[in-house]
């Protein structure tokens, strides 16, 4: 029995390693081939080079796509976070009819197939006579980002004691002054974290952007277009590596801020005597 | 300590027929009270009795369903919390965690835009009043519970309110600190001279600190009186029970004469006592009460004008006092007696006969 258990434990370890390897090895190939001095991404590696990265700097089409992504990312992050603050506050603070269905509907895009969302958004935009542009991409990205923003913001607002706002009112401050001087500063870590998560998601999003971007491609659309040309693959790998690094940095910062916020509310409620 | 009139007697808060309903639940049921200027007034009751609801109505965080509240002669119906002459010390203290102690205290003053260093001077004065003068730069999450409580006090007092509202401010502190803060709060209230309204479920806290106490049950005020009166002359069994131990003796009403009632009991015979306010003769029965510490053990040949004889059936030792349970022939329930241990009450054997002395003044008639 005991031997069986030991053998099982060994196999479980192997399974875990294979599993993680399968998930992440392909991602590791990205930076490896991006510095390989060959137009074809195959082993063995030929030599170290930064020429693929250098070629990105002079690529105006790529730079304009990157700029589009940046604009869309910032706009989506701000909009999703503002809407998320309102919704998260309503859901954590008040009891109202339709509260549970409403919060379920806000979270639904998490599980809906993105292609369905993208196609239906496209139909609606065309019906409304809205020309496809970065604006329509932003609208679509807000929908995609909102559930993630909500998750971060709800956990922030749940740790927020009503008494802080009452104390502020009690000390003579107006409702708006209370929002500015107490609620927003105390929520700042959750808000920043929501902005970063939303931005990251918007930056990497392909499906909605593909259907709604019209003639202004975002970075993922540009990359997809370039994949038709085998010779440009190494440059795309270099670009992908940069995007991967940026995403990792942003998400790490977001997580650190979220934990700091959690610790602050803990220290506040738990330190008695 | 001689009794000194601490309040000027002018009405500061007038609560008139206030009712607050939350859906089907009536949290406050036609409550009326007048609280005087400079008074230390406590709202005492078990959880769910409506005391916190009443405090929140005074602060303006909530509105009465019916009835009116006036503070300093001004009706409060249309005045929001941020324009009321009240400030609150919250149960959780609600110290803003993103500010240091001095910034917390200065929070309400910022809006007043005081010039010429007045803000700084008032913050320092308030921190001095609560003995935190040296901690201005300390961050909120670096404070102990007692220090947080002082910051909350200073933050409210610095606004110079007409009324300070305290929502169970001592409940989060340990016993020793709580007792120390009771004394300090009382001194502080005398020093600043403003009206304090304290919400508490701790009867000792209310008795030790208040000028007057309102005892509340089920959304109603059962009695408003000075601590000594409320302890010695509770108007009902419920009030008596909430404020410490009380022996209840079934009694028949045999006579009434204006301010007095005459009761007939088995153990204590015929007793004429003060008729409590609001006492209604329902049928012919009432309850006579006596506090356990007002029954005194008679040793050896001691005699008393008023005594009662029985048998010790149980004994509990509590260090400085002993709790004796004494069965009296004819009484349905045994009497509990609290005796100090200086004469050896802790050595009285269970089962021995005993005689108890009492002062008829200590007997109180209560409605059932």
From TrEMBL, chain A:
Domain ABC transmembrane type-1, residue spans: 66-254
Any one of the GO BP annotations: transmembrane transport
Membrane topology (UniProt): Multi-pass membrane protein
Family membership noted in the UniProt record: Belongs to the binding-protein-dependent transport system permease family. CysTW subfamily.
Protein name per UniProt: ABC transporter permease
Transmembrane segments: 12-33, 70-92, 104-126, 132-154, 190-213, 233-254
Localization of this protein: Cell membrane
GO cellular component terms given for this protein: plasma membrane
Coiled coil: none
Gene3D superfamilies according to UniProt: MetI-like (1.10.3720.10)
UniProtKB keywords: Cell membrane, Membrane, Transmembrane, Transmembrane helix, Transport
One Pfam family, short name: BPD_transp_1
């Amino acid at each position: 029995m005991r031997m069986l258990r030991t053998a099982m434990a060994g196999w479980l370890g192997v399974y875990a390693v294979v599993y993680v390897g399968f998930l992440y090895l392909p991602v590791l190939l990205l930076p490896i081939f991006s510095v390989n001095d060959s137009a074809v991404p195959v082993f063995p590696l030929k030599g170290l080079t930064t020429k693929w990265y250098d070629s990105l700097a002079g690529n105006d089409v790529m730079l304009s796509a990157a700029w589009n992504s940046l604009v869309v990312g910032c706009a989506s992050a701000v909009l999703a976070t503002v809407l998320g603050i309102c919704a998260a506050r309503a859901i954590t603070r008040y009891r109202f009819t339709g509260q549970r269905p409403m919060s379920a509907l806000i979270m639904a895009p998490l599980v809906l197939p993105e292609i369905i969302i993208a196609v239906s958004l496209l139909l609606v935009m065309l019906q409304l006579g809205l020309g496809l542009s970065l604006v329509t991409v932003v609208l679509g990205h807000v929908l995609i980002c909102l559930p993630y923003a909500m998750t971060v913001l709800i956990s922030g607002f749940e740790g927020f004691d009503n008494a802080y706002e009452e104390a502020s009112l009690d000390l003579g401050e107006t409702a708006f002054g209370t929002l500015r001087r107490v609620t927003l500063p105390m929520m700042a870590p959750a808000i920043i974290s929501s902005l970063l998560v939303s931005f990251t998601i918007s930056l990497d999003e392909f499906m909605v952007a593909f259907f709604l971007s019209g003639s202004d491609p975002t970075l993922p659309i540009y990359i997809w277009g370039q994949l038709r040309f085998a010779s440009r693959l190494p440059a795309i790998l270099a670009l992908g590596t940069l995007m991967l690094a940026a995403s990792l940095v942003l998400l790490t910062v977001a997580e650190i801020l979220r934990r700091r916020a959690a610790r602050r509310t803990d220290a506040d409620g738990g330190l008695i005597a | 300590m001689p009794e000194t009139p601490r309040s000027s007697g002018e009405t500061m808060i007038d609560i008139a027929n206030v009712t607050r309903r939350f859906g089907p639940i009536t949290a406050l049921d036609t409550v009326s009270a007048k609280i005087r200027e400079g008074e230390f007034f406590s709202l005492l009751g078990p959880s769910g009795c409506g005391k916190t609801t009443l405090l929140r109505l005074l602060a303006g965080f909530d509105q009465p369903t019916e009835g009116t509240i006036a503070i300093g002669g001004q009706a409060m119906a249309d005045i929001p919390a941020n324009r009321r002459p009240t400030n609150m010390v919250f149960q959780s203290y609600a110290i803003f965690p993103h500010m240091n102690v001095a910034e917390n205290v200065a929070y309400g003053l910022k809006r007043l835009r005081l010039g010429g260093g007045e803000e700084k001077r008032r913050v320092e004065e308030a921190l001095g009043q609560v003995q935190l003068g040296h901690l201005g730069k300390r961050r909120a999450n670096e404070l102990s519970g007692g220090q947080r409580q002082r910051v909350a006090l200073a933050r409210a007092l610095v606004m110079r309110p007409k009324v300070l509202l305290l929502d169970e401010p001592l409940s989060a502190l340990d016993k020793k600190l709580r007792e120390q803060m009771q004394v300090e709060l009382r001194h502080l209230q005398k020093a600043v001279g403003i009206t304090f309204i304290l919400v508490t479920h701790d009867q000792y806290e209310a008795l030790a600190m208040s000028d007057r106490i309102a005892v509340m049950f089920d959304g109603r005020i059962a009695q408003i009186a000075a601590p000594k009166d409320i302890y010695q002359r509770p108007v009902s069994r419920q009030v008596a029970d909430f404020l410490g131990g009380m022996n209840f003796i079934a009694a028949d009403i045999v006579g009434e004469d204006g301010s007095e009632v005459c009761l007939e009991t088995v153990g204590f015979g015929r007793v004429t006592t003060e008729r409590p306010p609001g006492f209604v003769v329902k049928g012919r029965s009432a309850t006579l009460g006596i506090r356990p510490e007002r029954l005194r053990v008679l040793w050896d040949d001691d005699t008393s004008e008023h005594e009662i004889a029985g048998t010790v059936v149980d004994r509990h030792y509590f260090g400085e006092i002993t709790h004796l349970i004494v069965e009296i022939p004819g009484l349905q329930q045994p009497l509990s007696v609290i005796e100090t241990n200086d004469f050896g009450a802790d050595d009285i054997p269970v089962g021995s006969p005993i005689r108890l002395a009492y002062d008829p003044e200590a007997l109180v008639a209560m409605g059932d």
